[in-house]
Amino acid sequence: MPRRLPHTSIQSLLQRMSIKRSRGQAMTEFTIVAMVLMLLILGTLQFALIYHAKITLNYAAFETARSGSINNARMWAMELGFARAMAALYTSPYVIDTGGVCSATFTFDPGRSVADLADDRATDKPFNLDQVRCARQRVRDMITDGLVRITLVNPSADSFADHGPDGTIPNDNLMYRSAEVKGTSEQSIHDANLIKVNIGFCYELIVPLVDRLISRMISFAPTALEPENFGPQAAGSFGNACVTALESDGDVRYGIPLFSEGIMRMQSDAIEDSFCAGQCT
Description:
By secondary structure, the chain is an alpha+beta fold. It is 46% helix and 12% strand. The chain contains eight helices and five strands. The chain has helices at residues 7-70, 75-86, 114-122, 129-144, 157-163, 189-192, 210-219, 238-243, and strands at 148-154, 168-169, 194-204, 255-265, 270-271. It has a three-stranded antiparallel sheet. Strands 2-5 form a two-stranded antiparallel ribbon. It is elongated and about 105 Å long.
């Protein structure tokens, strides 16, 4: 007759077998959870950067309206004001080449020692005007490339037709001028002296994996398999131009369109501007 194992021995054996199975199960669970956790961390980082860009854009919209307010609502002045305000998003203490080429502004020199960087910091070299100048140039290049849209909402063409038929809307002695609302623009001259700009900015997503996910979500319509999508962008819109834009070398550029508005009282006569870089209506 075979010898039976004690009951305690059987329990101990079963516990050891259960521990071995649990170790493999724990590794599988960790792999699944780690992927989700990494996605959450990267997504949080990317959305923090988007939020930072949106705050900077809100300030840039104010500066754009202010520049137009004191410069006769001229588009060139508003573009310069926008570039000046958005430069903070791209200004950094990186090395510029000896030729002063701005395209090399964002190439960090790994050969510089901590002592060299400390010496530069003491002599104010990292944050000199070259970095600011090149950051502004980068924003101006984005305007030229269609990655920024500055739309002059007011004064509109109807505003000039009603209150500035000679191409100039007067800004002086407004308190003594008639508050009559005219038909084409449905504005008084006081309304026509409010400058309002709408700005679209194509912010580049830079966090790996998340950039592709967000780009896909805003580019494609929702389906049964991908209900999280909320695109596509309207054909011919700034949003569509943003999500389909490419890098200068032809690589895919993962961008998300951000929008902001600025409004301010004119501090100079509004002059109808023929130079709008193709961006104003």
